[in-house]
Amino acid sequence: MDVTLATTLPVQQRSDCLVAAIYDGKKLSPTAKQLDKASGGKISRLLKRGDMDGSAGQSLLMHDLDGIQAERVLLIGCGREKEINLAAYKKIIISATKNIANNGVKEAVFYLNEIMLKDQDLNWKIRRCTETIFHSLYTFDQLKSKKARKLSLRKIILHVENKTELTRSRKLLAEAKAIATGTSLARDLGNLPANICTPTYLANTAKQIAKDHNNLKVNILNETQIKKLKMGSFLSVAKGSREPARLIVMEYRGLTAKDKPHVLIGKGITFDAGGISIKPSAKMDEMKYDMCGAASVIGSMKAIATLQPKINVVVIVPSCENLPDGNANKPGDIVTSMSGQTIEILNTDAEGRLVLCDALTYAEKFKPQSVIDVATLTGACVVALGNQTAAVLGNNEMVIKKILDAGNATGDRAWQMPLWDEYQDQLQSNFADMANIGGPGAGTITAACFLSRYAKKLKWAHLDIAGVAWDGGANKGATGRPVTLLSQYLLNQCKK
To answer: Nearest Cα to 393, choosing from 410, 411, 416, 377?
Structure first.
């Protein structure tokens, strides 16, 4: 399925379907007014008859209207015109996309860019609309014997009023497509079961992306190489699994080697049973999603490699499984990290920070401009912020602000939490330099406090995505977040 741009007037547009907005109170959008006039008032008569009133969530599909070249016209209820925000706009796009997909439409033209959104221009709407279209059409049926019904939908055309806007709009459309593709990859990786998506599978995925993009270099370190780096904290988590650990390093160069890169680190625990501190069995199947941090940074790198912007980017993924075994970490064990700091493991289910801390130390070798680690790190984050936003903490306010700005611009939002020194006391240990947990309170903050001890030489921020990485219940599945946020953050740092 493809998304393109066009400037054709609605009454002249030949297509399977035209999509136009209707607002609360039966108010016609400019496009709907043109279609109504061309059809001799047919749309107005249907609205007066009560077929729809423009409330949010309504839709009306009409066939073969006189005076209109298109075979169908789909009216989408948008609610109150002046109250449409980002969330409402996305619901409008999702409703339109699913309506045409479910009605056998092969090609449709969206006249929805004329919807007014405060402080957002046409190009912003093209980006968000395109990303939302791809997201709403995503399916995961690779492992089903009976595949989902193949959609007849082949193309959606987004109408652009002014031809002078087309050049910039096409650039932003290309960005949206690349980010959508990266998001779909992240969702695929997250949705795959742990018996398929192993650390080796993640490594092979990174290699395949590099094969497809000659501006990308990938280096996969095995356990022997990881041991030589003295990553004792990372390797301690891997001890309980028969699946070998991998350290995945992806390097994209859009500038000279002298230009410092931006580094993304993704937690790659491909299954987290909790180790000896084993998790409850209920919903343990969802612990295949504990590598969604890794999936998101790999998906973001795919988007960057496709777009080839002027920036240097490094992705680091420490990947292994966390399982109970006779050789697994035990509560009370003490391990030595790559930095030389020692850690008393009071809870083996707090393993994400044990792999990330060594990755943060490894990131120092790249002399980065910024470092962002991304992890489904704490259940406390879900308690604090729910499933709407990621948490961001760090030691550099400028990096944090840029993350927040990218999230606000894309709707893939984060919220800053404090990282005050007072919380560090909760990590005290009588037997090592620190404990790996900080007690029952402020779990998201103390996890970030732990990581901050390995990021002192870095301009660093931490994204806890435990609440946003996947949906549960009937719509269970990986969301691909925060690929959109991370991709936008990186694009914002590019040299002009």
So the answer is: 416
